[in-house]
Design goal:
It is built from four helices and eleven strands. The protein has 172 residues and is of the alpha+beta class.
């Protein structure tokens, strides 16, 4: 049974339970398997040699998640080819593709954790009560070490975009 963490996060001020470990900068980035589309699964090793900013959102079809993903899509154009920005959610790959098309998001790679919640459990962001992934940010260097971790305490709040981008730029 995966570790459950309570009392550290809320949704509209109501406590929620996160499943998995609490990671910190300096830890090795755990592997995961998520869906890139209906027929293709990917893992951490598929992005080997890149600096990875992983933006985790509960669902692209909500206001904060929409804003967060659009913001990192804009930032992607300034970070260069050594950086990949991945957005992980529980949305189905069809919904992710539809949302990206409607939003004009082309620089962020959307990945779906819906099949096995592998990412959510490995990174400690799976919300037990909703089977969604908690809003969070992870920056991983080219050697797959975590260099920046932000777990939000309230699901409806925005992450610290500036600090996340600064963490990526410090690796360039």
């Amino acid at each position: 049974m995966a570790q459950e963490r309570t009392g550290i996060a809320t949704f509209k001020s109501n406590p929620i339970t996160l499943i998995g470990p609490k990671l910190k900068a300096g830890d090795s980035a755990p592997d995961f398997t998520v869906s890139k589309n209906l027929l293709e699964d990917v893992s951490l090793k598929d992005y080997a040699g890149k600096i990875k900013l992983i933006s985790v959102v509960p669902s692209l079809d909500t206001g904060v998640c929409d804003s967060q993903t659009r913001r990192f899509n804009e930032e992607a154009s300034t970070l260069g080819d050594d950086v990949i920005i991945l957005t992980v959610s529980m949305d189905l790959p069809f919904a992710q593709a539809r949302w990206c098309g409607a939003a004009g998001v082309e620089r962020v790679v959307t990945l779906s954790d819906h099949k096995t919640s592998s990412f959510g459990e490995a990174y400690g962001v799976l919300i037990k009560e909703f089977r969604l992934d908690m809003r969070s940010i992870f920056v991983i260097d080219k050697d797959d070490k975590l260099t920046y971790v932000e777990y939000l305490s309230e699901m409806t709040e925005h992450p610290n975009y500036e600090d996340a981008v600064k963490a990526v730029k410090s690796l360039l």
